[in-house]
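job 3f2a | input accepted
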Amino acid sequence: MHSNSTKRRTVTLSDGNAAIEVKLWGELVDSIAAVGSTVVVTCVHVDIYQEKRSLNSSGSTEVKIVDTEEDFSGTVNGVSFDESNLSIPVDEDFMSCSSEQ
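job 3f2a | predicted structure (101 res):
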């Protein structure tokens, strides 16, 4: 929904087990662009209408797109917690990690 004074977009967030609609207002309308993106949405209001829950953004709402984790399997051969070496040897490969991970 767009008008001269208000922009609103409803998106559905799902973790594969459950889903919920989130109404984004104003500048947040453009914050989620791609289907399948992993997002963190904070500071929302819970609305209940006709026994259905949804979320509504507020002036404090933040939407952050985050990197998704890759699934892998194998035997971990060692781990280093040194900031200069952020990798984990798994079988014949090395998994790189950021300092946040």
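job 3f2a | The chain has two domains: 8-66, 70-101.
job 3f2a | closed
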